[in-house]
Design a protein that fits this description.
homodimer; about 240 residues; alpha+beta; Jelly Rolls; four-stranded antiparallel beta sheet; about 45% helix; about 20% strand; DNA-binding
DNA sequence: CGTAGCTTTGAACAGGCTCAAACCGAGTGG
DNA sequence: CCACTCGGTTTGAGCCTGTTCAAAGCTACG
């Protein structure tokens, strides 16, 4: 299967053959991390960045009373800690939500890319900028939307992101994420996540049984979640 | 006065004279924006990025019922929309909270920098990565801290960021931000912001009269806000 | 001296939380 | 093949943090 990162980047701009080759060659090794294991820990100073090839992962922080906040949910094609290339010290941990297949890209290789491939460098930079745009969107949803709207918003986003890397079958995606994990993502309690999901089901906006999430009414779901996809930068442009 | 962006970047890594000159030369013009005016609007496709030389600015989004969420507060030396260089379309507006002096850096010049100055490119990239780290921290504070802790956290952050660009006098900084704006930043109502500030004052953690914010007890304030500064990347390292 | 914008106060209300227990389904061992 | 266990989901009831609405108090400025 082709590298899902290339799939992701090519959706935003053309990549030359040399650039694609450079990306493929950047992968030093591939490893598998089991569900519920840490991929990177807060405070680590990685010498390579992890690219998620398969599976689901989450960035998270723990606060004093043991509560957890998830600041990013990752799907195949996402870099989990590309920012550690320049930030050096991890300000959060990264957790495997399912079994994950992960490609390691050495920081030394990334540095070489920035020396030799300006456009590819911009594309990697773009990748981290999209992370930032998602963070801003989450901040807005968290601060100013109701729990139900926030959940609807997250579902819209995940559906589009999964679709963009070819992980949707029609209106259905596999979303192997527990209600507790959703709660930690949205800043809600597990109990309330459950009630909110029931509401979305009752309104016939989604079906969500087991891991299978089906969008029943995209139109209304985006309306409830006040969702527009601009921030995901799904447009192909010269960058 | 020297360019506060250079001050900011030199705190994180050495810059060569050529790099500094390239940064200085990147400024095409300087303009002044009055308080409460938009610097960039959501949906805009800027051809230059705005560097804040003086004043305070905020990134914000408006949601359907007219409520506003501020996703970033900016101090001198911050790029307000460096990300528009690669994201192309603004996913949020940027507002001047006070009179702002702003340097315009054309995207064409940024592209040239990425072609010719790999290390400077990494430093600009780093700049956007720090924005992202702050977003994550805010997400955590918003989702999992009490209103009081969240406010304490924000105050700690702003104090350090202002200090880092030489805008602190001892334990005091000028923070010309209204309680309504703080509310939109923290995702709280203005009324509650007021009560939370009173609590921090009563606890003798801060003084905040007019625009002057004084830290009375840094130790306890960081404890209340569960604040550690790692995410601000204030360390000088090879990047 | 008046006004406009910001801060402060009070009181009722509500959205989401906590605690506790039941339920459910898939895998596991006897 | 059935009982058991474990992780996750669902339900109920009371509570608490932060909201809303409305009005009064400040303060800087013209």
């Amino acid at each position: 299967m082709t590298n899902p990162l290339i799939l992701k980047l090519e959706q935003r701009d053309q990549l030359s053959d040399d650039e694609k080759k450079a990306l493929e060659n950047a992968i030093a090794r591939i490893r598998v991390v089991e569900a519920d294991e840490d991929i990177v820990r807060e405070g680590d100073r990685p010498t390579e960045s992890s690219l998620l090839l398969d599976g689901f992962a989450a960035r998270y922080k723990i606060v004093s009373n043991g509560r957890r906040q998830i600041s990013a949910l990752h799907v195949p094609g996402d870099f989990l800690d590309l920012h550690s290339f320049l930030l050096k010290t991890m300000d959060h941990g990264v957790l495997a939500l399912t079994t994950c297949r992960i490609a390691a890209v050495p920081h030394a290789t990334l540095e070489k890319i920035t020396d030799e491939f300006p456009h590819l460098t911009r594309m990697l930079w773009l990748n981290t900028l999209i992370d930032g745009a998602i963070h801003r969107e989450w901040l807005t949803a968290m601060g100013r939307l109701s729990a139900t709207a926030h959940m609807a918003h997250l579902i819209c986003e995940l559906f589009l992101r999964l679709k963009a890397v070819g992980r949707a079958e029609g209106d259905t995606v596999q979303l192997p994420v527990t209600q507790a994990e959703l709660g930690d993502t949205l800043g809600l309690s597990t109990v309330h996540v459950n009630r909110v999901l029931q509401e979305l089901r009752k309104e016939r906006l989604i079906r969500f049984q087991g891991d299978a999430l089906t969008i029943l009414d995209w139109e209304r779901l985006t309306k409830v979640g006040e969702f527009t996809s601009t921030y995901l930068s799904l447009q192909n442009e010269d960058r």
